[in-house]
Design a protein that fits this description.
Layout lengths: L8 E5 L2 E5 L14 E4 L4 H10 L5 E5 L5 H10 L4 E4 L7 H6 L2 E6 L11 H11 L4 E4 L2 E4 L2 E6 L4 E6 L2 H8 L4 E3 L14 H5 L1
Length: 197
């Protein structure tokens, strides 16, 4: 029997919890940033709320620099209960797990120069274990297919989301995180075409 599971998120920008409209975060032009919500409450408030309601699989995403302290605040509110993403590499992944993350979420590190690196994925998976790794396949639609987008959804990579990609990556991670960046933050529901794909 299948069921829907709510997986909440704490998106962090400039140390604050925000809901950002997908693809509008461009650090070279911050005037383009569009938000639907900027929280008055701290990251730990939301981490405690998710813990209280047993909303497992929640993730904390650091959108740019200046979010480490806020991320650690959330992780310490629910040790081993939240996943962390944003700037994760093979050099800092274990540090984030030691800081309380259940799992780390990685995108950009796997795509140097916007090209997928199997070597980097294998190295990261060996460093922290497959069970602690989530591969972020957030994407944008291009030419009737979905392509992984990195760098806050600004850079399109060479990797299409399809069965072959999922089969390869699943060997090295325990979960995928997929955002349809073109509809992210618009409060218009899911991208049904992507789900069907």
């Amino acid at each position: 029997m299948s069921r829907t599971k709510f997986r909440p998120c704490i998106d962090l920008h400039d140390g604050k919890v925000k809901q950002i409209v997908g693809g509008s975060l461009n650090e070279s032009n911050l005037d383009e940033l569009k938000t639907n919500f900027v929280a008055k409450e701290s990251p730990s408030y939301y981490a405690n709320l998710y813990k209280q309601h047993d909303l497992t699989g929640a993730h904390v995403i650091k959108l740019g620099l200046g979010n480490d302290a806020a991320a650690k605040e959330a992780l310490s509110a629910w040790p081993d209960g939240l996943q962390i993403g944003g700037g994760i590499t093979d050099e800092n992944a274990q540090d984030w797990i030691d800081a309380g993350a259940e799992k780390v979420i990685v995108t950009s590190f796997l795509f140097p120069d916007a090209r997928f690196s199997l070597d980097r994925l294998q190295r990261l998976s060996a460093t922290i274990s497959r069970e602690r790794l989530v591969v972020d396949l957030s994407c944008r639609k291009r030419d009737k297919k979905w392509v992984v987008a990195m760098n806050k959804w600004q850079t399109i990579t060479d990797t299409e989301i399809n069965q072959a990609t999922l089969d390869l990556l699943s060997t090295y991670c325990s979960e995928f995180l997929v955002h349809a960046a073109d509809v992210e933050g618009l409060c218009q529901g899911i991208d049904t075409e992507l789900v069907e794909c």
